[in-house]
Every structure is written in structure tokens, then in C-alpha cells.
Specification:
Blueprint (H helix, E strand, L loop, with lengths): L8 E2 L8 E3 L2 E7 L13 E5 L7 E8 L4 E6 L9 E5 L19 E8 L5 E2 L8 E3 L2 E7 L16 E3 L2 E3 L3 E4 L3 E5 L4
Parallel strand pairs: 2-8
Antiparallel strand pairs: 1-3, 2-3, 3-6, 4-7, 5-6, 7-8, 9-11, 10-11, 11-15, 12-13, 14-15
């Protein structure tokens, strides 16, 4: 049997995108092997659009089977934080790797979903939700939506007269999701 040489790769889309809440940030990797539990915090850098420093204090936990790493941050994330994370594999010590010894590659400025307080859907205020042609616009209260993170088309269920309609694309602005091409 051939030995495994496939390195774990950070998942950056979908339900397992990097996510922060409180003073923790969760990263999910994809690979054929479990993650090695012996990982140092060295190499991780977190930045915020607010300019207020955030450092990675430690590795809070590693779930080897689920391939998740939870980072303990120096402060709690706020609703105003637009978060990005970078990872540079350390020259020495214990970087991210799987149990076969395959080192994860570095990455820079990956968006992190800020799950501090979810936005609330606006219903019956200023006419939202609205439908224009084949486009449904949903407005939200609370913090701004991250225009860099686009939910999957399948993240939404749209029913017209009780019948499901496929969503062909999702556009995100600071306050709205726009679902396009709802087939009639």
C-alpha cells in the first residue's frame, strides 16, 4: 500500500469556513488522515478591520477526527470586527500536520466568519423582503454582512405557493442577501 503524502488543507468555503465567536476561532481541515494533536499556536496571525490587536494565545483544542483546530484568542471578537487569519508553518516546533506527518501549507488573509451575533432578518419593514422579477432581496438588522463570504445557493430554501424554487446565485451586500434566478 502506498504511503499517504496528501497534506491537510484548510477549508475556506461552506459550513466549515473559519469561524470566530467569543475568544475562539475554529479552523477545519480536509485530508485523508486525522490531524496530529500536538500543534503549537506559532505561525497563526489574526487581524481585525477595527485595528484592535488580536493575538493567538494558545491552541484551545484539536479534534483530530473532525480535523478541527480551535484557537484561543487574546480578546473576544466584537460585532464590528472583520476578521482574517494567516498561517505560516513554523521553521521548528509543531506546526499543523496530520498523523502521517504531512505538513499543512500556509495561507494568508483568509476571511473568518464572525459569529458573534447573527444578523436578524427584516420582515415587513420598508417593504422587505422584496421580489423584483426573478430576484428576492432579504435585508438584515445588526452588524454588516461580510460581502467576501457568500453562502451557497443551497443555503436558502425558497417556496412559492408551497413549491420549492431553485436559487441560481447569491449576492451579498453590507445589509442584504440577493437571491437570483428563482425559477418559476
Amino acid at each position: 500500500m502506498a504511503s499517504d503524502t496528501k497534506a491537510p488543507k484548510l477549508i475556506i468555503t461552506g459550513a466549515n469556513t473559519p469561524t470566530a465567536a467569543g475568544d475562539q476561532l475554529v479552523l477545519t481541515y480536509d485530508g485523508p488522515n486525522d490531524l496530529d494533536r500536538n500543534i503549537d499556536a506559532a505561525g497563526f496571525t489574526v487581524t481585525s478591520t477595527t485595528g484592535t490587536a488580536i493575538t493567538v494565545v494558545s491552541i484551545a483544542s484539536v479534534d483530530a477526527k473532525a480535523q478541527t483546530i480551535t484557537l484561543k484568542l487574546s480578546r473576544a471578537i466584537t460585532e464590528q470586527d472583520g476578521i482574517k487569519i494567516s498561517y505560516t508553518p513554523p521553521a521548528s516546533g509543531h506546526g499543523v500536520q496530520d498523523v502521517a506527518g504531512n505538513d499543512a501549507q500556509g495561507f494568508a488573509n483568509q476571511n473568518v466568519f464572525n459569529n458573534t451575533t447573527g444578523p436578524g432578518l427584516v420582515v415587513d419593514k420598508d417593504g422587505y423582503p422584496t421580489i423584483t422579477g426573478a430576484q428576492l432581496t432579504l435585508a438584515y438588522t445588526g452588524r454588516y454582512l461580510n460581502g467576501d463570504l457568500h453562502p451557497s445557493n443551497t443555503a436558502f430554501t425558497v417556496l412559492v405557493n408551497g413549491e420549492p424554487r431553485a436559487v441560481s446565485s447569491v449576492d451579498v451586500t453590507r445589509a442584504c442577501h440577493q437571491l437570483k434566478s428563482l425559477r418559476r
